[in-house]
Write a structure and sequence with these properties.
The protein is α/β, with parallel strands linked by helices and 309 residues long. The protein has helices at residues 7-16, 28-41, 51-57, 59-72, 88-96, 111-125, 158-168, 194-203, 219-227, 240-246, 258-274, 281-304; strands spanning 20-24, 45-50, 78-85, 101-104, 131-136, 141-143, 146-148, 172-175, 209-211, 251-256. The chain has one domain (7-304): TIM Barrel (Alpha-Beta Barrel), CATH 3.20.20. It contains twelve helices and ten strands. Helix 2 (28-41) runs parallel beside helix 4.
């Protein structure tokens, strides 16, 4: 089966009140772990590539790894998505390279400039059968090339969201309701602005919304990293019950990256500490791959609700 767009994925997710996981990929083991989990749960999945991932792994390598995933899981709907594209040129490049979905992130720009840039990407993508995600409002935190101080973060204005969607023709919208990038999302008690989310959903009925910065930063894996030589004090994420609730209000795509990093790194750290004579990368990367699979299976079945009978 070829790569798919997210259009039908999101229609089914919206109607079924679940979300599709968008998992960031950087190498072979991460892709394999995600695909094995998706295949066993029969869940649709979005493989998400950031500009940092393309720089690290090289675009041609990632493309061939995704092609291999299609062979391994021919019955699973798989979309290939650009995460946080920061320019028209980058979006154009990945569209021409076979991506089925792109995010153009103009959230750092003045409102009218964000609209103009998003319209430009939509005009190029839609005739080529590619869907476009944009962002309105700014999430705090650090992840790859995204670095936003908390004082510069802004929540999404519901009326502005309606205007933005109508004027750009965008297919989905990443909104800011309190999530943030990275492992340090909350200093106090976790809180998402569900009232704001409900208003946006009411004003844009049937329209798919996206949550970025939505890793839970599960304590077990933070503790594992720290126990086996890591130094990640005070990391806190979005509680899983909040993410599940968000899917009741139009959130059809939830981005997950930090949780994958923590699971893989914790598992590898543990293996190397307990097996100091191991120097075969297949052994510790294999352990990391299993950790990715277990984490993605957990997210699909316990958080996203996207597993299919």
């Amino acid at each position: 089966m070829p790569l798919v767009t997210t259009t039908e994925m999101f229609k089914k997710a919206y109607a079924g009140r679940y979300a599709v996981g968008a998992f960031n990929v950087n190498n072979m083991e991460i892709i394999q772990g995600i695909i094995e989990a998706a295949r066993e749960t029969r869940s649709p999945v979005i493989l998400q590539v950031s500009a940092g991932a393309r720089k690290y792994a090289k675009a041609s390598y990632l493309k061939k790894l995704v092609e291999a995933a299609l062979i391994e899981a021919p019955d699973i709907d798989i979309a290939l998505h650009l995460d946080h594209g920061d320019s028209f040129e980058l979006c154009q490049q990945v569209i021409d390279d076979g991506f089925t979905s792109v995010m153009i992130d103009g959230s750092h720009l003045p409102y009218e400039e964000n609209i103009a840039l998003t319209r430009q990407v939509v005009a190029y993508a839609h005739p080529r059968g590619v869907v476009v995600e944009a962002e309105l409002g700014r999430l705090a935190g650090v992840e790859d090339a995204v670095n936003v101080d908390s004082k510069d973060a802004t929540y999404t204005d519901p009326d502005q969201a309606v205007d933005f969607v109508h004027r750009t023709g965008v297919d989905s919208l990443a909104i800011a309701i309190g999530t943030s990038h990275g492992a340090y999302k909350f200093k106090g008690e976790p809180e998402l602005d569900f009232e704001r989310l409900k208003v946006i959903t009411e004003k844009l009925p049937g329209f798919p919304l996206v949550l970025h910065g939505a890793s839970t930063v599960i304590e077990e894996f933070v503790a594992m990293c720290n126990t086996y030589g890591g130094d990640i004090p005070g990391a806190r994420g979005v509680p899983e019950e909040m993410l599940r609730e968000a899917s009741n209000y139009g959130v059809c795509k939830i981005n997950i990256d930090t949780d994958l990093r923590l699971a893989m790194t914790g598992a590898i750290r543990k293996h190397l500490m307990e097996n100091p004579s191991d120097f075969d990368p297949r052994k510790y990367l294999g352990v990391g791959r299993e950790a990715i699979k277990a984490m993605v299976t957990h997210k699909i079945t316990r958080v996203l609700g996207s597993a299919q009978e």
